[in-house]
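Ticket 4471: requesting a sanity check on a complex prediction with NDP. Repro inputs:
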Amino acid sequence: MMAMTNAIVISEFGDSSVLNFTEVPTPTPAPGQVLVKMRATGVNFIEIYQRKGIYSIPLPTVLGAEGMGIIDALGEGVTNLEVGQRVAFTDGISTYAEHALVDAQKALLIPDGMDDLTAAALPLQGLTAHYLSSSTFALGPEHTALIHAGAGGVGLLLIQLAKLRGARVFTTVSDEFKAELAREAGADEVLSYDGFDVRVRELTNGRGVDVVYDGVGQATFDRSLMSLAIRGMMVLFGAASGPVPEFDLQRLNSGGSLFITRPTLWNYLLTAQERNWRWSELTEAVISGKLNVRIGGTYPLAQAAQAHDDLAGRKTTGKLLLLP
Ligand code: NDP
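Returned structure tokens:
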């Protein structure tokens, strides 16, 4: 009889009601892949874009790319991993499930001192915060950065990594509880979204910030540009409030010879060496107590729809995990 596993399947684009908890055949690892029995699955904003059809994906499918678990079976030719090992990953295949596949070369080894939920929470948002702060715009003590949604999954990690690199950090949040979390993470100035560009100018004696990390998108983009210092860098890395409409490149001129980039994680994990470098820096920071990973909510796998609604509804802080 064919082995079956529980998963969240989507067969059409739409609101969270299209997330259907059902049985699917347990996947079989192809050559070079491993089968993982999931212990925790990361929820990320990209799955909301995919569910809505903003990012096109073939249907039906099981969503999800991030998480951690125990290796259950090895595909042909896998020699770098063993059955029973704990692994985390940021580019697993269909991880909203009890079992998922991972390319053996992309599995991330979990240090002994790290618990399962932290290991599941760290890969996608952690590697993102790492590449944004160290590579897209390499922060140093001479820089001031504005980070939007500072109490979110990426936000809390990015504030901490920016502070570890010595930068002065401003952040926006939408309520007092989130403000408190952002302060605990080390933000120097916590701002409301209302008039944040004006406040940034006041706090920098009119100069503006060197970089804005903007994962909110539509609602903040214009004023993010207006917050930048001459030759500042706009890092648009997401669209939690909706996609940014086309804009006139001339604005980069009038804003002060500005730079703009729209980066994505996969372009900053180009080689095994790059992936392992970022992962080892992150895990060492966590183990040594320099980087705190906040798990803002755990949900049974069957309640993935609730997790999506909470994340899209700005009700969450830190990382959300699904537990199979
Ligand atoms: P968050 O935990 O940050 O959740 C999103 C936050 O955005 C909310 O909590 C909310 O914080 C803020 N927000 C502002 N306006 C809205 C709105 N209209 N609707 C919903 N949220 C809003 O999510 P993630 O950490 O998972 O992701 C943050 C961003 O990073 C996303 O845009 C995501 O797509 C992007 N991302 C990009 C990657 C890349 O490589 N390019 C990789 C990973 C993530 P508040 O209430 O304080 O405003």
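Notes from triage: The CA atoms of residues 131 and 268 lie 7 Å apart. Leaving this open until the requester confirms.
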